Amino acid sequence: METITAGVHGDALPTGCQVIEVHVGELNQLFNAMDPAPFRERDLDPNAEEFIVGWAREMQEDRPLALVVHLDREPGTDEAAATLKGAVMMFFSERAKVTRQKLRLLLRNGRLSLVIGLVFLAASVLVGDVLAGMLQEGRFAGVIRESLLIGGWVAMWRPLEVFLYDWWPIRREARLFDRLANMPVRIVQDGTPATTAGGERDQWPARRQP
Fold this sequence. Notes:
alpha/beta, 2 domains, four-stranded mixed sheet, 4 strands, rod-shaped
């Protein structure tokens, strides 16, 4: 852990952590201005959320994350850092909860689809065999049997897609939100505002550390 110096407020950063850095003029710019909830309970601004989550996805999963917010105009305080950390924790904890609910719903629908697919596959095989027997195993009977068998396996496509491919990206997203909810948060007071060539402050000249 490193020590916190003057002009820096909030958590100490663990050794070897991966830092997501964001530059804003005021803390309010990190949050959705249309959200009427108290500051601690407000949602992050969509652009801020997209930036933070986007960088986090590209970082190594076996190393902790940390968020450093650089303020250009507003003075940072320990209270503001604690409030920001609480807001970030609450926001991403809720995202993790919603994502896990989505995963549970997907798996429930997948199990239902699997039962329906197996029943339809068994019925297709049975009907195909019965029709083939009634038609004395002729060429036409073979076509009917194969068509029904193909239809039965097509009915298995959806449950196979759920259990082979769809569930693990959602689970990975929930774990990412857990990491973001538990990351240390620090506020740094910058002495010189960041500006664009036209004189207006660039809201997202944000960087990350490897």
